[in-house]
Amino acid sequence: MKKLLLALTLLAPSAGFACSCEGSVWSWSTSEAVVAARQRVRVAEEVLRVRVSGLTRDGDTTVYVVEVQEALKSSSTEAIRRLTTGGDSCNLSMSLNDEWLVFVNNGRVSQCNGSWPVETSDDSHVGLTASQVAEQRESRRAMAANWLSFVRFALSELPAR
């Protein structure tokens, strides 16, 4: 595991992870990302890789219907889940068919608790060339892969249940 962490440290961009919530922006170095992953994994009831199959909105609350692709930390075996976001400044905005790594507490997810897009259908590429869009998607995938690696590493350190 230490060799894996060292490899990730050398390969990961130093400011590759950022989250903007309540006006704050965190840019994490690799070591900060490992610490953040450990903390988020420890406090989350569940860590899931999910694909969004449905959603309903009611005011500032959104309920997502998700298909669990991988349960990294969970006591549930349900393949289809309902997750809620909203009511605060860290609303998570997912679209149909998006794939996310989510940290769940009491059936709720937020942008600020470490949840991260793995693959999105974001089409906000107005004014970009096809190669710029491809570069942006590849960069997002690489960042997601790095974060998922840090989370897997942090999960491997948890005591067996």
Explain the overall architecture.
With 161 residues, the protein is α+β, with helices and mostly antiparallel strands. 32% of the residues lie in helices and 33% in strands. It has a single domain (2-7, 18-156), classed as OB fold (Dihydrolipoamide Acetyltransferase, E2P), CATH 2.40.50.120. Strand 3 (46-58) and strand 4 (61-73) form a beta hairpin. Helix 2 packs across helix 3 (130-156). The chain is globular, with a radius of gyration of 16 Å. The chain starts with a helix and ends in a 5-residue tail after the last helix.
CATH architecture: Beta Barrel
The average pLDDT score comes to 79
Distance between the termini: 19 Å
Biggest sheet details:
5 strands, antiparallel
Element layout with pairings:
Blueprint: H1 2-11, E1 17-21, E2 24-28, H2 30-43, E3 46-58, E4 61-73, E5 80-86, E6 99-104, E7 116-119, H3 130-156
Antiparallel strand pairs: 1-2, 3-4, 3-6, 4-5, 6-7
Helix pairs in contact: 2-3
Summarize this structure as a short list of keywords or feature phrases.
OB fold (Dihydrolipoamide Acetyltransferase, E2P), two-stranded antiparallel ribbon, 161 residues, 3 helices, globular, 33% strand, alpha+beta, single chain
Summed up:
This protein has 161 residues and is an alpha+beta fold. It has helices at 2-11, 30-43, 130-156, and strands at residues 17-21, 24-28, 46-58, 61-73, 80-86, 99-104, 116-119.
